[in-house]
Amino acid sequence: MLSSTPAAAAPSRRAWWSGLALVVLFLLMVQARLWAPYWDTRNVQAILTWDVMGYYLYLPAQFIYHDLSYQKFVADIMREYSPSGSFYQAFQVPGGPAGALVMKYTCGLAVLFTPFFWLGHWAAGLLDYPQDGFSAPYQIAIAFGGLLYALLGLGLLRRVLLRYFSDVVTALVLVLLVLGSNYFQYAVFDGAMAHNYLFTLYALLLWLTIRWHEQPGLKWAAAIGLTLGLMILIRPSEAVAGLIPVLWGVTSIGAARQKLLLALRRWPDVLVAGFFLVLGVLPQLLYWKWATGHFLFYSYQEQSFNFLRPHTYQVLFSYKKGWLLYTPLMVLPLIGMVILWRRNRALAVPVVAYFLINLWVVSAWDIWWYGGSIGQRALVQSYAVLSVPLAYFLTWLLEPQRRRALQMAVAVLVVLLIDLNLFQHWQYMASIIHAEEMNRDYYWAVFNKTKPGQADYALLDVPNRLPQPERDYDLRTLGKLDFENEAPSAENGFNAEVGYYSKQSFHSEAARQYSPALTVRAGDARAQPGQWLRASCQVYSDYGAWNTKLVMSIERDGKNVQWNGMRLQNNLSVNRAWNQPWFYAPVPDDVQPNDVIKVLVLNENGSPSFIDDLQIDLLTPKPAAGTNLAAAQ
């Protein structure tokens, strides 16, 4: 073994606990995948949707439709399967022929999808499904292909950990990563996204790095280079993974010099690793050259990094997507880094350096929340590396000299955090935890709830909640707009076919942004500070009033002094039935008699829906509630 290599123990031949843990965890993951299949539904919860559609599109475009450039088949796919709200996964080639497209996303995942794409294509033909690249057999093949990649990744990680840690510690690490973190989401339900595959490649990179340092050779060097190339091919920012083999075994400046001398002595290995790294990214370079005329092309358009102003606090702690808020168990590997640094500097340097620089890169992306996800999905692949400090923490905790009370306290905490993680995964899959727009008020409103109410869902958009239960207020209706006396026509949007109490309503659609407004003067309403306003309406839609809001504003001299808008679609909405969404807003402290209270519906290029009974209510605290007007603010 090289002197610069971290000390590794011989792998145990009787690693029963970790082997059993691996098998049981995989079976649980398969069961969870079967619990929420989604692959035969024509909606956005299928597998090959949104970003994944962009990763995958190379395969059907090239091998089924033979139209990688213009992708004219996509219109039919969008109409049949609705894989995303719009076709953003490719765009017009700058300066290219009209209609010629270039993919937004790189082709790394398409390479790894390939065997399962062909399996799905074969099954679609055999079972008489459309061989269009998106029917159920393709969805199923890609979904279970992701689970097999997850099994491979966890198996590789087990082999890595067994070289340094006991069988029990290795088993515990596997259990905590799968059940206690958002890895579960991206290995099971969103297994076709990049994070599951990158986790497996990180585990492979760790294994190959260990083997090269134990016995340097061209085959290990080639494998390291190709693995890094595939990681970059999937996500170019994963180039930061190169720190792991480069810094492996480096404990000091002197050790860094020894590592450099080793690299110089083994220069054929370095050249071979570099060659295979380039070979790994070559498919993308050739595609860009073919599609755009340039070997290097930035396909993310207006999205970019700002390394001077990273969003590190938001990435770690925000209610929107805070890593440690939604995956609090990952505090343990952060504590473990201290133990790792003290006990094994040769492992600590590459692990800590990788974690810090990767966190910086992840935080520097301008869309730091990375779209729809539970917690920080961009850090999921790094859990393979963070398993090392997590294992050091568990090893330290299980040492005989540790107090029993401390061990029991940590065990109870870990069980509670696993329970929290699995429950919040259920909330996420049930759309209680919102994929993109969480905030503090809403997070705590739905915390530990299986059936939130309208007052809870309103907090996603309106940061107001009555300080007392509604029964402690006197409610007075200030006005209602029911559209009963309007002449129906296609031009004005009034409809005589569907209505709440009658057959009359207003038809909201993308081409008609604003509904008629219900207006009330504050003076006529006798509105005072300490009172509350409630805006409500009745809404009917076939598949949800998406991207449509109920708006209540207070205007003074034609300018808004208060504005609130709440989405009309939430988990309480029932398709093809009348629903009543509502929200509260306080009367402003400086309210004036001529202020105009206005309620309307705003359609932001959303789905069509029918609106009826726009209504404004005024809530005044009851004296018996022990609250006067001033204290109720």
UniProtKB/TrEMBL annotation:
The organism's place on the tree of life at top rank: Bacteria
Record keywords: Membrane, Transmembrane, Transmembrane helix
Keyword field contains Ubl conjugation: no
Transmembrane portions of the chain: 15-36, 105-124, 136-157, 164-186, 192-210, 217-234, 240-258, 270-290, 323-341, 348-368, 380-398, 405-423
Name of this chain's protein: Glycosyltransferase RgtA/B/C/D-like domain-containing protein
